[in-house]
Specification:
Radius of gyration: 31 Å
Strand order of the largest sheet: 10-20-15-16-14-19-11
Number of helices: 19
Structural class: alpha+beta
Number of strands: 31
Length: 657
């Protein structure tokens, strides 16, 4: 619209949002270059700015095929302007008629203001119509296909309110929705250089990964934390390699059973350990994990007594009577030095965050042999941002108490009979009966269960708060048709939800932590090479449920019977000593265990798993797995790399940027 000079008749609203993130903090550091208006509405303070503009490209479906819409050409544009002009004139006439019929001075004043606005707008539309009619051969009025429009906007940028914008970036969510962000011309260079953290991106690279990683700083944050790079220690990633019976699906998409399928898993993919002192500084000392974000950095950091472990192991290594005695270790703990994965020497007393290269996404663009330099550059970038990292979330318990909702896939993959389903649904059936109301000894209905349901599930998008408030003022509202109809509708909706496989069973989600003891042992050179886990086979450790009992682990997406994982929960002294776990953290063994593949490619960058304590559900899973063998399904599809040069030109045959 800016290109065609129609900006002043185009309706636009501030509907997008940049979440509170490292990106927003950096943008505000350049506040002298743009305007940010403070808006107060309904008691809430918001900020409006034209610094960043989101553009969405419309995609349509026809006969099962996707095609992109075209920008209207001259004839279509003129027709729309003429119709717009006629609509404005009709609205003006209607408002004038209302003025003649109204005796309300307030309404008349409002209508007169509206007429004045509409007349000004109709004059603008008429002026544009005449101007374009004279200038009809101008290239900007030709129809343009969506792909060509993308190229035009990506390469040339856009003009809006007299200022020029360049294509900036696309977050992972926006790429799925055919959206992108454009930024003010004068902010493009400093923000793009900051987003790319000065990486040399010359030549062919993995552009799709770059787009995903550069947007990590755009993630919505709950809070921030200061972590000095001198307190970070990087150890090498460790892999568990073994053979296991599996159904392999390769590039030919054919399933083939392999009795000795080769499995290789990164046992700490996306995982880190953070000292409790940092968690306490972030007011999260009572939490078991914090999902961290920074430049090309994504890691789930688990609350750990990191310094306690180092102090304890140092005492052993400096005691001649201990098996771990090492005469080369400095007996003074404050002077004890360790060497990280990049060859950097770090004082043990300074180590507060332990992570691996799998969390350092910039290494993918560092170039072989330049990893140490790339890490040094990253540390400098973190220091330049005052050592601030973002915290996206921590683990949390189910809002449904000791129960969680199943998905229909979890129910559909059970080998069950009619009575089994009745047993599974018993809790929900009783709950629905309570919502419908029960007669007490005096013969009156107990309405409290439904009112409590309204209060517990109230949202800004439903009327639950209103009906519960009316009930608290006058309980007799339950006798009205309005209330009865509303309750019947809500109960019907809930019953439909239950029929769709959403059953509340004794279960809760836990964030997955893999072999943390091996991470700690790997701090000391050579100690982590043996890969001997504290847990054996299918054992897990969680404070959520009783020890020495069997539980079922299920992860979304759950596709088939092959994805049920049976486990034994065990206590562990090492974890109790050095980890600060909560009920919603589960430690797993990924050494020579199929758990990561069996639970659909699970990794440790804050993935969660649903642990079932339901006797009914666990019994049915056992019955299902006893009837036949369900080997793990192994994805052996090898994708061809598609490196391209970084450019703004769009093509359907390559990733966008």
């Amino acid at each position: 619209m800016s290109e065609r000079g129609l900006e002043n008749i185009t309706k636009y609203e501030y509907v997008g949002m940049i979440p509170w993130s490292l990106e927003l903090l950096k943008l505000r550091a350049h506040k002298k270059r743009f305007i940010e208006n403070e808006i107060s509405k309904n008691g809430k303070v918001k900020f409006q700015t034209d610094t960043v503009i989101n553009i969405k490209f419309k995609n349509k479906m026809k006969n099962g095929k996707q095609f992109t819409s075209a920008v209207r050409g001259y004839e279509n544009l003129m027709s729309r302007l003429l119709n717009h002009f006629k609509h404005l004139k009709k609205t003006i006439r209607d408002n004038k008629k209302e003025i003649k019929l109204s005796n309300n001075k307030r309404m008349i004043d409002k209508l007169e203001k509206s007429i004045s606005y509409l007349e000004n707008k109709s004059d603008l539309v008429k002026g544009h119509y005449k101007r374009i009619k004279v200038d009809r051969d101008n290239v900007i009025y030709r129809e343009i296909k969506a792909d060509d429009l993308r190229n035009h906007l990506y390469i040339n940028g856009i003009n809006f309110k007299g200022r020029h914008y360049k294509f900036y970036k696309r977050t992972a969510s926006k790429s799925r929705q055919s959206q992108g962000l454009w930024i003010l011309d004068e902010l493009y260079e400093p923000m793009k250089e900051w987003s790319h953290m000065g990486l040399s991106l010359i030549g062919k690279i993995d552009v799709a990964s770059l787009c995903a990683y550069e947007s990590l700083v755009s993630s919505s944050l709950e809070s921030i934390i200061e972590i000095n790079p001198k307190n970070i220690f990087v150890i090498d990633d460790k892999f568990s390699e073994f053979e296991y019976p599996a159904i392999e699906v390769g590039n030919d998409l054919k399933a083939k059973f392999n009795k000795k399928a080769k499995i290789k898993n990164n046992i700490w993919d996306g995982q880190a350990l953070i000292d409790i002192s940092l968690m306490q500084m972030a007011n999260r000392g009572n939490k078991g994990m914090a999902l961290l974000r920074s430049h090309f950095f994504k890691s789930c950091a688990f609350n750990c007594n990191l310094q306690k472990y180092l102090e304890d192991i140092h005492k052993e290594m400096t005691n001649p009577e201990k098996q771990n005695y090492d005469p080369t270790v400095n007996p003074n703990y404050t002077k004890w030095k360790l060497t990280d994965n990049f060859g950097n020497v770090v004082f043990a007393k300074d180590i507060l965050l332990l992570t691996t290269p799998s969390s350092l996404k910039f290494l993918k663009f560092a170039g072989k042999g330049y990893e140490k330099e790339a890490y040094a550059n990253w540390c400098n970038r973190v220091r330049a941002d005052r050592n601030i990292m973002g915290i996206c979330k921590s683990e949390k318990a189910s809002k449904h108490g000791d129960r969680s909702f199943t998905s229909y896939q979890m129910i559909n993959t059970l080998d069950v009979e009619k009575q089994d389903i009745e047993d599974l649904a018993a809790f929900e059936v009783d709950f629905i009966k309570e919502l419908q109301g029960k007669k007490d000894a005096s013969g009156t209905f107990d309405e409290k269960p439904f009112i409590n349901y309204l209060i517990k599930n109230k949202e800004i998008t439903n009327a639950y708060q209103m009906f519960s408030d009316i009930y608290n003022i006058n309980p007799e509202v339950v006798r009205t048709r309005m209330f009865r109809d509303y309750r019947a509708k809500q109960i019907s909706n809930y019953r439909t939800k239950v029929k769709g496989g959403k059953l509340r069973l004794e279960a809760d989600y836990c964030t997955v932590l893999s072999c943390p003891e091996l991470m700690l042992h790997s701090l000391i050179s050579g100690n982590g090479h043996k890969l001997i886990s504290e847990l054996k086979d299918n054992q897990i450790h969680t404070q959520l449920y009783d020890y020495e009992k069997e539980y079922t682990l299920v992860r979304n997406p759950h596709n088939s019977q092959n994805n049920f994982f049976k486990s034994i929960n065990v206590d562990n002294e090492f974890y109790n000593t050095y980890l600060n776990l909560t009920n919603n953290i589960v430690v797993i063994n990924s050494i020579k265990s199929p758990i990561l593949d069996q639970l659909n490619g699970m990794d440790m960058d804050s993935d969660t798993v649903l642990i079932f304590n339901s006797n009914v559900f666990n019994r049915m899973v056992n019955k299902t797995l006893e009837n036949r063998s369900y080997p793990i399904i192994l994805n052996t599809i090898v994708s061809e790399p598609n490196p391209v040069e970084l450019a703004n030109k769009y093509s359907r045959n390559r990733p966008e940027n």
